[in-house]
Amino acid sequence: MSSHGKSGKTKKHGKDFVKDFLVGGVSAAVSKTAVAPIERIKILLQVQDISQQIAADKKYKGIVDCFLRVCREQGPITLWRGNLVNVIRYFPTQALNFAFKDTFRKYLCPFDPKKEMGKFFLGSLASGGAAGATSLLFVYPLDFSRTRLAADVGKAKHEREFTGLGNCLATIFKKDGMLGLYRGFSVSVVGIIVYRACYFGGYDWGKQYLFKDFRNANALFLFLFAEVNTTLSGLASYPLDTVRRRLMMQSGRAKRAYTGTFDCMSKIYAEKGLRAFYKGALSNVFRGTGGALVLVLYEKIQKLFLKH
């Protein structure tokens, strides 16, 4: 093959990468903002047992109680607390996930979906999981900050644990160094592989066998399929998500409740068994609507890009 041919392929691959990055990022930013209140409620329910701001007799009783109290005690606008960080975080996270997914898929899933269904499915799972884990390495401090800002229940500025993204990063780094910003990273990697493997793998596999022409498929059916896929992916990885967020809450503290991942798991289980790992899970089902929107918007926006 001539050097000109190789150069042309490299340029085309580069353009495809940038296109995937932009399409995935825009889709994610829109959907995340729409479901931000649900996501904050989910985080509050997950971490309230380790929060130093929420007294034992002031814990939220459930989704509705949490929603009403946040609106009453902190103000309705605070339902979007940390959303700007989430958009900043989610743009590169989701965009990199989609971009890396296609890159990994070329190497991990070179199978014909019609002739090698099993291998194609496993390859899709592997490429989705690898994309998620790789992306997480770059954006974890933002993911960490999003959790800490969303878990901050102070109303007035002097009651807040952090005043914003910069203050959160600087405060934790000053107390715990870079390790503090990456607390819970190892279990997050496992969780993201499980989630993204199901999320991308299930979606890629399903759209090949449930839709003859997925780019021109009915948007409603595509959304419903994406909703089911997103919900199941979220539930599969939810216990790991709870553990990682509990570990994140320890950074910057002199006294820690958990010595590590397994200690955290055992203590959470001691609370109420498996149910303790799924606190806020129902809100996660509603939050999954955002993930479903991302998948559908990605396909539709990509379709528009391909026309030009």
TrEMBL record:
It catalyses: ADP(in) + ATP(out) = ADP(out) + ATP(in). Keywords: Antiport, Membrane, Mitochondrion, Mitochondrion inner membrane, Repeat, Transmembrane, Transmembrane helix, Transport. One of its GO terms (biological process) is mitochondrial ADP transmembrane transport. Its main location: membrane. The chain crosses the membrane at residues 120-140, 180-198, 219-240. One of its GO terms (molecular function) is ATP:ADP antiporter activity. Solcar repeats lie at residues 15-107, 119-209, 217-304. One of its GO terms (cellular component) is mitochondrial inner membrane. It is found in: Membrane; Mitochondrion inner membrane. Signal peptide: none annotated. It is a multi-pass membrane protein. PANTHER family: ADP,ATP CARRIER PROTEIN 1-RELATED-RELATED, ADP_ATP TRANSLOCASE. Monomer. ADP:ATP antiporter that mediates import of ADP into the mitochondrial matrix for ATP synthesis, and export of ATP out to fuel the cell. Cycles between the cytoplasmic-open state (c-state) and the matrix-open state (m-state): operates by the alternating access mechanism with a single substrate-binding site intermittently exposed to either the cytosolic (c-state) or matrix (m-state) side of the inner mitochondrial membrane. Belongs to the mitochondrial carrier (TC 2.A.29) family. This is ADP/ATP translocase. The lineage of its organism: Eukaryota, Sar, Alveolata, Ciliophora, Intramacronucleata.
